[in-house]
Every structure is written in C-alpha cells, then in structure tokens.
C-alpha cells in the first residue's frame, strides 16, 4: 500500500536491509554528527550530511539488543550525546539509552477486523495496575494477557490502552512521554506490546492506543541539536507564547514539516508494525489552542488543527476501519466533521459529562440543590448527557460512567458511595448504584466504555500504583454478571434489544421530585427499548409510569434481582401489561434499573 506522507523523505531513524543497518537523524543546526554504540565499541562513526538537516550512515553487523546514541557536535564546540528520537526501545525510562530492537515477530496470520461503532464496547486499561502480579514493580503486558479471558467474557469488544510509551520513572499514567516511539521497558517493551496485541486479536479483542502529542516530556528532545531560540526547547518545540501548556513549555512545533512528519510516522508505526486498531489523542484542545480553550480564535493554533486532520486521514488510509478518538472536552463539532468539510475527521470524541451528571443525580455532588427532592438540576444534567451528539450523530461520542479522569485527579471512583478513599466491603447500596451507573452508560447512545475494575466494585481513587483487587471479581460476582448482562443487551446479542444499538433517544417519563427517569431507544426496524431508572435509594410502591405504547412489555433486565446484589429485595417482573391509559404500576426499589422491550 502506498502511504501518503506530507514530506517525501526516505525513512528516518533506524532501519535494516539485510545485515546492513541504516541510521538517519534530523539535526539541522549540528556542525557534524557521529554515531556510537556497542557495534563500534563506542568509537564514533561519522554520519554524512545530506544537505537538508539530515545525517545518515550505514553500519554492518548491528545486532538486536545493541545500545547506541548520536553524537551532536555544535558550532561552538560542544559534544552532545543524544538518544535516537525514533528509538523503538530504551534500556530504561529515566536515564536510558537507545536500543536496537528485535524486528522479528510472527503474527501468526493475524486477520482481526473490528466491529462497527454501534456494536463496540471499549474497556479502559492501565497496564501498570490492571494485573500487578509483583507488588514490588509495575504490571506488564504478560500479566495483562493472563486476564484477557475476563475482559472477553464481559462482552467487551475493544481495549483502550492508556499510554504505553516510555515515560519518566517507568510508571505513571503515561501522559508525559519522553520517547513516543519506544514502548515502556518496564511494561515489557516492544515485544511485550506485540504479543499483547496478538493475543487480544486472537480472542477477538481490538486494541486502541492512547497517544500524547499535545506536549512531550522533553527529556530526550530538549535542544536536541544544541540550538534554541531564547532558551526554548529547540527544533522540536514551539518558542514564545505557543510553547506553554498547562504541563510546561513543551508543545511540539506543529508548523514545522519535520516535526509533523515525526508525529505522522509515529501513527504509521503503531498501525503497521503493531497492528493497533485505533487511537485516542490526548487533550486535542491543547493541540489546537495555545490556551487550551474552545472558541478562542486569538489562541488557535492553525497548524495543530491541520495536523489532527492529517493524522486521521493517514490512519484511515492505512486502516479504513481504524477508530480515531479525540479527547477534547470543548464540545467542538469540527473535530468530528470530515476533513473535506473543514473538520479534523475524528470518528468520535470522549464525553466527560456523564460521570459528573451521574454523581449529581445520585446525590454525590457538591451542588446543594441536587440531593433535595424536586431539584430539576439532577435529571436535567443526565438528560443533557444522554442527548449530547456531535453533528447530529451520537456515535461520534464515547460515553462512560467513569474514566481515569473522573476517578482520579483528586476524585474517587463512582463505586465509592460514601466518599471514602478506599472501600473494603462495599455496601449493597454501593453495588446497586454501581450497576445503575453502568446501566445508564450502556443504554445511552454512543460508544460505551468501562473503566478497568468498574465491573467488580474496585474502590478508591484511580492512580498509577493501586492495583486492581481481583478478589473482588469473586466477592462481587453478581455485579460482574450484571455488567455482562447489560453488555449483551447493548450489543443485541439475543436479537431483541436492537434499539440500544441506534442513535435515537427520547424521554417518556421524568419526575424531578422522585428522581425517576424513563427514556426510549428505537432503531430503524422499530425495535423499542424502554429504560426506567430510580436515581434514589428510596423504595416507591406502586409507582405509575405511562409508557409510549400500550400492551405487553417484557423485562429484559431488572437490577433488583438478588442474583446481582444478595441483599436486594426484588420486584419480580416478567411481563408488564399497561392499563387502558397506557400506564403500568411498578414497585420501584432503590437504585433500580428496568429495561423493557415490546
């Protein structure tokens, strides 16, 4: 396949042809460049200048595992040791050295194809904490592979990996990468990620990768060839007022063709070499605006806007089925408009509204009026999130009850109903509220996502070190089953809940006083699904609801079933028959969710 590049350069970085290794680096302000490594006993091999800021050399007998660095000689006589900006492997993250990777890998005939967006459920995974077997160190790809059967059994179709590129200290959330081509060595490095993707594909799971281009750590790129403008970051970064982000002055220079290609080639590498099925771009609002603001023309970065369009075009050219997601939070519809219509061409945007709306509706917010009976704010916020769509298409959003953002950054997971930092024995109320939160996210229009551990009541805040308590998967097996059943309905596994795969939603019942909401989902084949939610822990006897259509309605999901939460008192429902006015009476249990089909 011919892959479009913005500038037509032969490969940059390290490549092989037979036993001959080609090294090529961009250092436009260097007086000369050399190469040192295990293969030349760390005695400098000069690189030839190509006359356009690129330097290159061919070296024989370069074996996988060899370490190497570039030597930058500046015009002022400095000798700078620099890692390869495109190194695919590092000895370590904090103070590592570039490593020649093992390029061989047997994919075993990988032919994975992702499901359509309306049949997709994602699962946000942090490799460092997902299955941390050795409590003295971080989790690895190998450790995560051991639990893939669990993820698959839930009904999840796609794993969204939090950043796995080389990061400072070797652990963390991964949002300050110091080498965007190298896979974190403590996670298992290049070979570990390749094997992880292979095993995911073998069991029918896609892999979306969280990538960070809004800022870089700068550890290995800062003033790479010795040049700076007023002590700025050098050739890879903006100077002046565009240099600053909320994480410091490390925004890449999206207007420089070589930097744009550096990022585009990174996208190409993940898709071609690693068989990655899509991306989530972190903080796109910081790529497109120097102040991180929406509707701020004075602060807009036009080159950032255009680069994002080039990223989505390239990703879709390589893999037309790739899912490319923006994390923006600005609500700007141009992110998911087609590039030919002036947009960036993303397939979807993360929507952070629902986690906060659910917390308000459950009475957990700081807003004093939310927990008060009759407050319209609680259900109004939930309705806003349910109806949110970009360009008239709800499938242009990723919707979730919790994510690393809402469960971290000084907050706790939505399972922590009492606000404690950690919960050892979650109450029945907490279990029911957790099922409610999952149910709303999984019955709303959009591409739903679960946060790792959400399905078995993982408590506490989401951080970079607290591992999942896998014992809870057994202790709260009922909550796990509830999530499995909800995913099966969301994906229309049994052929009777097709309405949940559609874009359509309408409200047929809203009671702000009692905080009870009813919404309707239907598809083009008129598969009607009704969802009734009691957002309080209050029992309401003989609650009357007028349904959109009279007749018989079958219960497909009833969260009051004791099989989900042992302490539950069940409202037994098989079929609901409306009266002449189209109404039914239900004994609504606390935090009860009822899903009905005609």
Largest beta-sheet characterization = 8 strands, parallel, barrel
Q: Report the β-strand fraction as a percent range.
A: 15-25%
CATH superfamily of the largest domain: Glycosidases
Strand order of the largest sheet: 10-11-14-15-16-17-18-19
How would you state the average pLDDT, rounded?
Answer: 92
Broad structural category: alpha/beta
What is the CATH architecture annotation of the largest domain?
Alpha-Beta Barrel
Helix content: 10-25%
Radius of gyration: 26 Å
Distance between the termini: 48 Å
Total number of helical segments?
13
Number of domains: 3
CATH topology of the largest domain: TIM Barrel
Topology readout:
Elements: E1 13-17, E2 20-26, E3 32-37, E4 45-46, E5 48-49, E6 54-60, E7 67-73, E8 79-82, E9 98-99, E10 122-125, H1 127-130, H2 141-145, H3 148-154, E11 158-161, E12 165-167, E13 177-183, H4 189-202, E14 206-211, H5 257-273, E15 278-281, H6 284-288, H7 302-318, E16 323-326, E17 348-350, H8 353-361, H9 376-387, E18 397-400, H10 404-407, H11 428-443, E19 447-451, H12 472-475, H13 477-490, E20 506-511, E21 516-522, E22 528-534, E23 540-546, E24 552-558, E25 575-577, E26 583-588, E27 593-597
Helix pairs in contact: 5-7, 8-9, 11-13
Sum up the structure in keywords.
598 residues; alpha/beta; Immunoglobulin-like; TIM Barrel; eight-stranded parallel beta barrel; six-stranded antiparallel beta sheet
Written account of the structure:
With 598 residues, the protein is an alpha/beta fold. The chain is built from 13 helices and 27 strands. The strands form six sheets. Strands 10-11-14-15-16-17-18-19 form an eight-stranded parallel beta barrel, surrounded by four helices. Strands 20-21-22-27-24-25 form a six-stranded antiparallel sheet. Strands 3, 4, 7, 8 and 9 form a five-stranded antiparallel sheet that branches. Strand 14, helix 5 (257-273) and strand 15 form a beta-alpha-beta unit. Helix 8 runs antiparallel to helix 9 (376-387). The model is unreliable at 5-9 and 418-424 (pLDDT under 50).
């Amino acid at each position: 396949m011919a892959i479009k590049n913005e500038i037509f350069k032969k490969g940059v970085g390290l490549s092989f042809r037979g036993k001959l290794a080609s090294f090529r680096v961009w250092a436009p302000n260097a007086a000369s460049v050399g190469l040192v490594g295990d293969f030349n006993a760390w005695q400098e091999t000069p690189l030839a200048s190509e006359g356009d800021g690129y330097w290159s050399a061919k070296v024989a007998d370069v074996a996988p595992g060899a370490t190497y660095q570039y030597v930058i000689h500046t015009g002022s006589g400095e000798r700078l040791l620099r890692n390869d900006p495109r190194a695919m492997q590092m000895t370590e993250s904090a103070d590592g050295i570039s490593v020649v990777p093992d390029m061989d890998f047997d994919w075993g005939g990988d032919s994975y194809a992702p499901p359509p967006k309306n049949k997709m459920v994602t699962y946000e995974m942090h490799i460092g904490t997902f299955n941390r077997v050795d409590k003295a160190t971080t989790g690895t790809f190998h450790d995560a592979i051991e639990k893939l059967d669990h993820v698959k059994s839930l009904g999840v179709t796609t794993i969204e990996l939090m950043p796995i590129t080389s990061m400072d200290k070797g652990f963390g959330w991964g949002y300050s990468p110091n080498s965007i081509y190298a896979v974190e060595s403590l996670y298992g490095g290049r070979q570990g990620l390749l094997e992880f993707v292979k095993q995911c594909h073998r069991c029918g799971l896609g892999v979306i990768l969280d990538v960070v281009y809004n800022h870089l750590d700068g550890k290995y790129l800062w003033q790479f060839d010795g040049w700076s403008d007023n002590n700025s970051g050098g050739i890879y970064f903006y100077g002046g007022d565009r240099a600053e982000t909320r994480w410091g002055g490390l925004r890449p220079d999206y207007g420089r063709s070589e930097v744009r290609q550096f990022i585009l080639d990174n996208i190409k590498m993940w898709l071609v070499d690693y068989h990655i099925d899509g991306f989530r771009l972190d903080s796109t609002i910081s790529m497109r605006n120097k102040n991180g603001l929406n509707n701020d023309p004075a602060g807009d970065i036009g080159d950032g806007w255009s680069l994002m369009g080039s990223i989505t075009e390239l990703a879709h050219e390589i893999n037309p089925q790739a899912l490319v997601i923006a994390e923006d939070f600005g609500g700007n519809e141009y992110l998911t408009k087609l590039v030919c219509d002036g947009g960036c061409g993303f397939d979807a945007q993360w929507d952070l509204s629902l986690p906060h709306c659910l917390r308000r509706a459950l009475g957990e917010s700081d807003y004093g009026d939310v927990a008060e009976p009759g407050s319209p704010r609680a259900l109004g916020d939930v309705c806003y999130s349910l109806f949110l769509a970009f360009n008239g298409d709800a499938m242009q959003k990723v919707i979730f009850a919790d994510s690393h953002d809402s469960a971290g950054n000084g907050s706790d997971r939505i399972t922590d109903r009492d606000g404690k930092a950690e919960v050892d024995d979650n109450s029945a109320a907490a279990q029911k509220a957790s099922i409610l939160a999952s149910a709303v996210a999984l019955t709303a229009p959009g591409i739903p996502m679960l946060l790792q551990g959400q399905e078995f009541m993982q408590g506490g805040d989401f951080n970079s070190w607290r591992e999942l308590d896998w014992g809870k998967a057994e202790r709260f097996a009922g909550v796990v089953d509830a999530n499995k059943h909800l995913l099966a309905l969301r994906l229309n596994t049994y052929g009777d809940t097709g309405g949940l795969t559609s874009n359509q939603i309408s409200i047929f019942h809203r009671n702000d006083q009692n905080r009870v909401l009813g919404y309707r989902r239907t598809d083009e084949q008129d598969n009607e699904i009704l969802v009734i939610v009691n957002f309080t822990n209050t029992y309401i006897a003989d609650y009357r609801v007028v349904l959109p259509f009279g007749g018989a309605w079958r219960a497909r999901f009833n969260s009051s079933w004791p099989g989900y939460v042992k302490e539950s008192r069940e409202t037994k429902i098989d079929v609901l028959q409306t009266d002449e006015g189209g109404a039914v009476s239900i004994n609504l249990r606390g935090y009860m969710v009822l899903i009905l089909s005609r």
